[in-house]
Automatic annotation (TrEMBL):
One of its GO terms (biological process) is L-phenylalanine biosynthetic process. It comes from Neobacillus thermocopriae. It catalyses: prephenate + H(+) = 3-phenylpyruvate + CO2 + H2O. SUPFAM superfamilies: ACT-like (SSF55021), Periplasmic binding protein-like II (SSF53850). This is Prephenate dehydratase. PANTHER family: PREPHENATE DEHYDRATASE P PROTEIN (PTHR21022), PREPHENATE DEHYDRATASE-RELATED (PTHR21022:SF19). Its EC number is 4.2.1.51. The record marks T175 as: Essential for prephenate dehydratase activity. The keyword Lyase applies. Keywords: Amino-acid biosynthesis, Aromatic amino acid biosynthesis, Lyase, Phenylalanine biosynthesis. It comes from the Bacteria. Pathway: Amino-acid biosynthesis; L-phenylalanine biosynthesis; phenylpyruvate from prephenate: step 1/1. Residues 201-278 form the ACT domain. Transmembrane segments: none annotated.
Amino acid sequence: MNVGYLGPKATFTELAVKKVFSGFTPFPFQTIPECMDAVVEGQVDLAVVPLENALEGSVNITLDYLTHVVQIPIVGEVTLPIKQHLMVHPENAENWQQVSRVYSHSHAIAQCYKFLHHHLKGVPFESVSSTAAAAQLVKETPMQNIAAIANELAAEVYGLSIVKRNIHDFDHNHTRFVILATQKNFDFAALSGSTHWKTTLMVTLPSNQAGALHQVLSAFAWRKLDLSKIESRPMKTGIGNYFFIIDLEMKLDDVLIPGAIAELEALGCGVKVLGSYPSVNIGLD
Ligand SMILES: O=C(O)C(=O)Cc1ccccc1
């Protein structure tokens, strides 16, 4: 089986792929939408993309592409600890404090904001498509004293020197990656051995109805359905128009979740199940 992921080699997404898909063929893509398109077009069997970071929140491009553009179910989830390191070309290792620019994925830059502010004050940072793309850029540009924020594997793969380790601002830095597949026979529970399931819903509210969100929440509350996330995202149809992404801490059953969905629909809400999937935590500290 082929697994598409946000590349190039040695991204955090590739680390997630390696943890759960040994024996599969990894297939890097430069952007998250390209990964998802590849599943739709059948170029890969699965895609793994980042969805949410504990420090920085949702990866909006993933959420928006999943909700507005492609119709691919979430079939699994992997959560991984994230350790960010500052790295430069070995030729510039002595002078890293004089770097002229720092490159990384926008989420990685945000996760290290305090470090950048205190240790590289005034140095501009620039976001690129992934942390590994930043490491690759630094490798290919030895004549410029520039740095990347990326993981240990990226330093190894691109031959860079780590000059500061663990520069993420908070210890409990984790990212949720989702697995997307159109194939019905893919069984992540069997592959991962996970018994912990989640269900993700997309809910649109009826327009201009006072108390609608309260009613939505009460449909889950009186059934004692445990919500681990609720987030609003713009509908992209005008200011003030939002939909909600809701994560439930259980597998889609025959009674409780369908009952809640029927109640929401009776209130005039639109509800779409984005997936009901096993969830795996790798090496959480
Ligand atoms: O850029 C990467 O390496 C990714 O896989 C995306 C990402 C960026 C920052 C934290 C976690 C995942």
